[in-house]
Amino acid sequence: MAQYSKVEYWNERYTKDPDSFDWYQRYSGIRHFLTEEYLSENKLSFPNRDSLRVLDLGCGNSRLSEEMKEDGFGSVTSVDYSTAVIKQMSTKYPNSTYEVMDATKQLSFADDSFDLIICKGTMDAILCGAGSNHNTRAMNLECCRVLGDMGALVVVSYGSPDNRLVYFEDEEFGWNVDVHTVPKPKVGVSAVEDRDANGDHFVYICKKGKPTEKEDVTAEIKKEEELASSIQNVPSLTLTDSKGSV
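Above: the chain sequence. Below: its structure as tokens.
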């Protein structure tokens, strides 16, 4: 598996096989996660789909970016450290933005450049190589930097929470992490070069920001209603002290 972390491997692979290839999931498999219901801690101010600034980190030759644009996402930038694949994708989709960048090094974007980053298989590839802990943390720090205050990082992985959450739960990131699962596609429907026998892929949604005041109030009201309901269901009790009923 170590070859998955080497740019030489990817340049050779894309040169020999330039056909589109989706790791783990196609866009249709994760589309429902890319909504404010899943992505934001602050739904009242979350951008509309057509104004979301999206980064596909480690795009490869997947059609993810193009399918997102076709589905109404207004701005999608795709990066990969393979010069071979970026040249191919730029030629194939001249009206789209494809740039050569290494996810483990400083990205050529200013702070607060994106609202959403999608990392589909990229983190798993990084974890196959030497210095994986350092490189994964470097990637996460860069994602934090280029994401806006209410942004989200979506990581699609074959790794279970027991093996992956440790990479996200860092106080310096300040993320609220939700974990979801999505069934693996059937062979022939999407390319699925998996390395374990689990029937699902894991989707880690790392969100910045805090719930708005209105959402906090709504949550508190819901808690109070649940508490009141539970109290109503408790049988009546008579409290007594040494002198009788109270």
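The first helix runs from residue 7 to 16.
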